[in-house]
Amino acid sequence: MAGAMAAAAGGDSDGESEELVLTPAQLIQSLEQAWLNEKFAPELLESKPEIIECVVEQLDHMEANLKRAKKGDLKVSVHHMEIERIRFVLSSYLRCRLVKIEKFFPHILEKEKSRAEGEPSILSPEEFAFATEYMANTEAYLKNVALKHMPPNLQKVSLLKSVPKPNLDSFVFLRVLERQENILVEPETDEQREYAIDLEEGSQHLIRYRTVAPLVASGAVQLI
Amino acid sequence: GRAWGAWRGGRQRQGGAAAREPPRGLGETGLLEASVSEAKAGRTDLIFLIRFRHCCLLRNQRCLLAYLYDRLLRIRALRWEYGSILLPPTINMTFNTSFCKFLLVEWFNRYKKSLATYMRSVGGEEGLDLTQDIKPPKSLYIEVRCLRDHGEFEIDDGTTILLKKNSQHFLPRWKCEQLIRQGILEHVLS
């Protein structure tokens, strides 16, 4: 099966940018890693358009192969099941992102507005369009149903202040992929003092998300 | 049916109408303006009263907006649960009936359109329907029982199945997902 997938994906990797050429297995693993990170992180993570594009191409290739295959061949069911599984992971990943976008829309749009030039975006262009439309739609609704009927000094509401922010202090489980040294852990209460820890490769921890947010973004740790 | 009943029994009754009254009421009596002009004229002891009343108004505003937004979220959930439907006319409105209903339907239609545009942009030529594949796939085919007559149903290889009430079939999972959510088929777990 790996042979079939590699042959099918042979055309994938050409024409990609300076990125590494990934085998299908590595691509699916990156998808699963991105999926798990997104599921367990309290905030919206960076968008991964390259992974999504490649996975979609991969699925198209596999489906085309399936159509050409002989009916009743046992391999067909196995491939088909694999397609279903990959499609599920991809859908779940995108759904998770949409849910977070809808939940934190004013903060996400604000973050995107104040993003510096070289920094990677947390929203893909399509997600950005969706988020802006969602915000405009909801603002218009609230204004027309309630706000414009209120006394003059109550007709505005700051969505940035009213909509809750993601809780970056929530605890997450993680597995360390690359060894890290001297990670500074902020104190939670006034009695504690900040201290530094080393993260050994392969170890698992339960830690506040805020402390490890940059490590999740860089791929040094995997949320589980 | 079930979802509608629970939703109607929810807290969308008096709260909205009552919370909306005080802001209008206070403004109309002019009590607030009178206090404000007196406070500016030197009666600083009234400032406390004005601030207190303003806090009450702000709280009412937030309660009302939270209630309205919660309704929006329930309507949004309908799209994810039942697919791209038209809102049934039996939505219960507690105040300013037809115009508010119109605004809600307008929000829903815009949301559907926005979601559809996004889903089309992801995933190749046909887009990726994110409202499918909600659960991890356990098998390719599942045993289903038909709960109501649904007529003929075509599956991928061209064969048609007659979905008659109480008939049981062994069908591809992905074709059944939508029908199961709509309550036409039932997944039989042996």
TrEMBL record, chain A:
List keywords of the entry alphabetically: Chromosome, DNA replication, Nucleus
> GO CC annotations?
GINS complex
The protein's matches in Gene3D superfamilies, at most eight in alphabetical order, are given as:
1.20.58.1030, 3.40.5.60
Q: Where is the DNA replication complex GINS protein SLD5 C-terminal domain?
A: 166-224
The main location is nucleus
**UniProt keyword Nucleus, yes or no:** yes
User: What does the entry give for GO biological process?
Assistant: DNA-templated DNA replication; double-strand break repair via break-induced replication
Superkingdom of this protein's organism: Eukaryota
Looking up InterPro entries in the UniProt record yields:
GINS_A (IPR021151), GINS_bundle-like_dom_sf (IPR036224), GINS_Sld5 (IPR008591), SLD5_C (IPR031633), Sld5_GINS_A (IPR038749)
Please give the family membership noted in the entry: Belongs to the GINS4/SLD5 family.
Q: What does this protein do?
A: Required for initiation of chromosomal DNA replication. Core component of CDC45-MCM-GINS (CMG) helicase, the molecular machine that unwinds template DNA during replication, and around which the replisome is built.
- This one is known as DNA replication complex GINS protein SLD5
Q: Record the organism.
A: Zonotrichia albicollis (White-throated sparrow)
From the broadest rank down, the organism's phylogenetic lineage runs: Eukaryota, Metazoa, Chordata, Craniata, Vertebrata
Automatic annotation (TrEMBL), chain B:
Q: Where in the cell is it found?
A: Nucleus
Instruction: Report the main location listed first in the record.
Output: nucleus
Q: Does the keyword Nucleus apply?
A: yes
A single GO BP = DNA strand elongation involved in mitotic DNA replication
Region annotated Disordered sits at: 1-26
Per UniProt, residues of the GINS subunit domain are 41-122
Q: Name one GO cellular component term.
A: GINS complex
Which residues are in the DNA replication complex GINS protein PSF1 C-terminal domain?
138-189
- Kindly state which keywords UniProt assigns to this record, in alphabetical order: DNA replication, Nucleus
Q: Which Pfam families match?
A: PSF1_C, Sld5
Q: Which InterPro entries match?
A: GINS_A (IPR021151), GINS_bundle-like_dom_sf (IPR036224), GINS_Psf1 (IPR005339), PSF1_C (IPR056783)
Q: Could you say which protein family the record assigns here? A: Belongs to the GINS1/PSF1 family.
- What does the record note on quaternary structure? Component of the GINS complex.
What does the record give as the function of this protein? Answer: Required for correct functioning of the GINS complex, a complex that plays an essential role in the initiation of DNA replication, and progression of DNA replication forks. GINS complex seems to bind preferentially to single-stranded DNA.
What is the protein's name according to its record?
A: DNA replication complex GINS protein PSF1
Q: Which organism is it from?
A: Zonotrichia albicollis (White-throated sparrow)
